[in-house]
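This protein record is not my work; I was only asked to verify it. Where you disagree with what is written, explain briefly why. This is what I was given:
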Amino acid sequence: MLIDEDDGTGAQRREREFKVVIKLAARADLHHLGLFLQGRQTDAPQEALQVLDIVLRELPTTRYCPVGRSFYSPDLGRRQPLGEGLESWRGFYQSIRPTQMGLSLNIDMSSTAFIEPLPVIEFVTQLLNRDVSTRPLSDADRVKIKKALRGIKVEVTHRGNMRRKYRISGLTSQATRELTFPVDERGTMKSVVEYFSETYGFHIQHTQWPCLQVGNTQRPNYLPMEVCKIVEGQRYSKRLNERQITALLKVTCQRPVERERDIMQTVHHNAYDQDPYAKEFGIKISREKDCLPQVGQWNMMNKKMVNGGTVNHWFCINFSRHVQDSVARTFCYELAQMCQVSGMAFNLEPVVPPVSARPDQVEKVLKTRYYDAKNKLPGKDLDLLIVILPDNNGSLYGDLKRICETDLGLVSQCCLTKHVYKMSKQYLANVALKINVKVGGRNTVLVDALSRRIPLVSDRPTIIFGADVTHPHPGEDSSPSIAAVVASQDWPEITKYAGLVCAQAHRQELIQDLFKQWQDPVRGTVTGGMIKELLISFRRATGQKPQRIIFYRDGVSEGQFYQVLLFELDAIRKACASLEPNYQPPVTFVVVQKRHHTRLFASNHHDRNSIDRSGNILPGTVVDSKICHPTEFDFYLCSHAGIQGTSRPAHYHVLWDENNFTADALQMLTNNLCYTYARCTRSVSIVPPAYYAHLAAFRARFYMEPETSDSGSMTSGAAAGRGMGAGRSTRAPGASAAVRPLPSLKDNVKRVMFYC
């Protein structure tokens, strides 16, 4: 292959020769794909699906900027500035999926952040949010600029039509006016300023700025910032700040009728039926629209909780300099009264008066005030700490939760300054709900009108687990992943969930500490782990051992389904067997997925009997045919009422079912449970145990000590109780043992819903 290169100067064109080799990688077996779609083969032929996916992605790849399974373009919708040199682009997600209708093309609208194609000088001005020519760059400015620009492609603007592109590797430590480099083999040095003036006739203005380093780090090239422009179409993959997230959410939030319209416009614009690449492979695409046929919420104002908790001994610390002591006292009194009105036994007077403190003294003040209060209550426990926080509180919230839950054994409720000043009745009622479950109360129960029990699980003792693993943000390469497991502790109501957390290897999805076994010098073989501890806790709380286990597992991608099932189901069985011989209650293992691109729309957007006020499908809508897996047990459930934008149904995939649930029974149970979420008075979008596990895992990130939170020198362990120490777990293949254990939760904290 010969390629002509034109440098834009009019000089003779260079000709370069490349050798291209094409090899046969494999033959996709479409016969087995046909058998799979007919239900005559159990394993999906992933290679064939991947080949078809690649074919159907070829046309949009020529028109749009591909990112993962999505495609973006500035022409698909108005670019929206996100701040600090970023902008949002509209796009669409596309993937081919096997369903009961055959092969389906899943399309959904999407938006993501791109780097604005600005001159680098202008980008840096936006990044620092000031006129950069007014004063020299500080060390902090340099670090921020370097982090933001590293890895970004730029094109030069000082060479006419030749827009050569480079990738930024760093910044020079010296200013441009101080930089020199050798120009010949004799080592003759020339300054960057002189070189650009003599060679290109370009006079560098910002000589006090550093240069961009591009190319090879061993032999870096220097480019002044003012001759560089950011190349268009580069996705921003780092973490957005809060203002940028808010701006992006405003762009992505759409009413259902608007989203469906945009999806259909995208399908029409892409003209899949005329796709030349698809035709070349004999693929035809046509659209089939199948139609599937108040509202998911209630109000607790002037109503009492089912079981009010007790708060006899409490105190308050105010970390906000904008809240006066008198305001703090009034707020605490109003909150205590609301808790009483809602059905709690809540003492109106604190053990010690509210105290104001500085955020940078959180540990000292917290422990001092805790022991002051304890000294007034010899032999008694403190039930609650109320904390008033600044609206922008940085690490204060995390530090406070870590100290309370892993050091002092104290349940806390945090309130932001803006809510303290407003002191609305609705806010106080919502906070009362959270306090009640944190001190062991029960807000609501779901019961059958006749039997007064939750349907489908009241026939025999049932424990419901929720499990999730949260992974570090991109760039946090040494941080551990956090696993959390919660389990119901009451029956037949099923509303209280105890929670345990553990740290494990970076990006390890299999939960390592579900079951643990090790040799003790005195006791011999010892077993433990999160499942065993929660089963023991259930029996202690109810007086019964579970005769049925339902395990909702969040956060698992389709490619990991059976690896997770095999490892974690085995851990559940071993935990049960370790309690007593032949104890093997039947298990139902369900994966919960929220991150997918399937949306459900009403067949008639004007039919008020099939949509809620937001235009979304009604809560309780379930789809278990047509768009579901050809042979496996899965369903989509929209259990929540829409607020804004388009509701996303949860996707439930039943990987194992020894309880022999009918589809209707498991769908009804799952939907019913979504009405028992403790933190609000509405049905939620995913089943509460999975939701609680996510909250607990997110909370446990705060337990990592600041000096070790980004360290890789850690050992495996859990925050859940005795015998769950370092290096003792039975690990999955490939799992690393180098994870530092989280500090242990205090026993009284583990027993309540501290994560709410």
